[in-house]
Amino acid sequence: MCFECENRDRSGFLDRLRGGVAARGWLVQGVERTGPYPSWAYTIGLSGYGLPELVVTGLPILAAGTLLNAMAAHVLHDSPPGPGDRIPLDDGRLLEVVELAEPSAHLVFAAALYGPEIRALQVVHADAKGRFPWSPDYRDGRAGQPVLGPRHAH
Fold it and tell me: 154: how many CB neighbours lie within 10 A of its CB?
């Protein structure tokens, strides 16, 4: 069960998040799979640099954290990708960037720290055959990969 759902001291948790962001620059918040919904993760802290937060759905938490940490480090030293950009990874996988329609609805703790006007980009990953979730023949072998905004293909 998630921290928020357990009705613990939310302000204390937000203070710990602020401390973690201050010490490291950003954090990755993982959300475990529940029922038919796959796990997902998002960054907290990039908004403090005037950058969009990053989100990935449908990956195991550890893999999502690894991907988001690498991307966050990159965007802090370069510019963030834009909606529709495709990013090839060293391991051969391909990502496409989608802008979230309602970031504050999905990035609860980032919105709690930086306000409901936060921006966010989802890194959507292709399946093993290079197909994305909007393809009718997409298969990821897991619980799916919800796409949280409209596709802006170039």
Answer: 8
What is the extent of the structural domain holding 63?
A: 4-125
86-88 and 40-44: which strand pairing? Answer: unpaired
Residue 154 lies in a domain: no
Q: How far apart, in whole angstroms, are the C-alpha atoms of residue 10 and residue 3?
A: 8
Q: What pLDDT digit, counting tens, does each position of 24-60 carry?
A: 999 999 998 888 888 999 999 999 999 999 999 999 9
SS3 of residue 77 by DSSP: helix
Q: Coil, strand, or helix at residue 90?
A: coil
**Domain assignment present for 14:** yes
The answer to whether the beta carbons of residues 121 and 54 sit under 8 Å apart is yes
Query: How far is C-alpha 5 from the geometric centre of its chain's CA atoms?
Result: 20
Instruction: Tell me how crowded residue 51 is: count the other CB atoms within 10 A of its CB.
Output: 19
Q: Is the dihedral of CA 31, 38, 105, 124 positive or negative?
A: positive
Q: What is the pTM of this model?
A: 0.89
